Amino acid sequence: MTCLAIFTAALWLPYIVVVNTFPKGTLPDDAPDGFTISANWKLHRPWVQRAYRVHMKLLEKLAPFAILVFMVDRVEGFTALTFCTAIAFFWLRVAHAVRYITAWPKYPLGSIIFKSGWVC
């Protein structure tokens, strides 16, 4: 769970760094020191949009998964299966992020990753 939380925080960084940079010649005239943030994330480059969506999707999945893992731990039902499932979920989310941000072909890899994560 710690690795998953750190990974979630790390996915936020590329979006924040890149969202503050625009290609040369596209900055508004009133941008101070070449630094500006667009309020609309859909105006950014495609891979930046994908990085943002990956981060948001992981946030959506992290909370329910963490709650379930902690609930299993509290009722002393934590087994090797729970441990392996948590590890698999982490690596599936890493694979999802890499595949999504780099825009690899979506089918069937995306479906396999999504369904495997859901099973976890």
Mean pLDDT: 79
- In terms of DSSP E residues, the strand content is under 5%
Q: How are helices and strands ordered from N to C?
A: HHHH
Proportion of helical residues: 55-70%
Q: Could you tell me how far the N terminus lies from the C terminus, measured between alpha carbons in angstroms?
A: 13 Å
Shape: elongated
Number of strands: 0
Radius of gyration from the alpha-carbon trace, in angstroms: 18 Å
The helix count comes to 4
SS-derived structural category: mainly alpha
Largest sheet: none
Name the poorly predicted regions: none
Question: What is the compact description of this entry?
Answer:
By secondary structure, this protein is an all-alpha fold.
How is this structure best described in words?
This protein is mainly alpha-helical and 120 residues long. It contains 4 helices and no strands. The chain has helices at 2-19, 46-74, 80-102, 109-119. The two termini are 13 Å apart.
How does the SSE layout of this entry go?
Layout: H1 2-19, H2 46-74, H3 80-102, H4 109-119
Q: What are its keywords?
A:
4 helices, elongated, 120 residues, mainly alpha
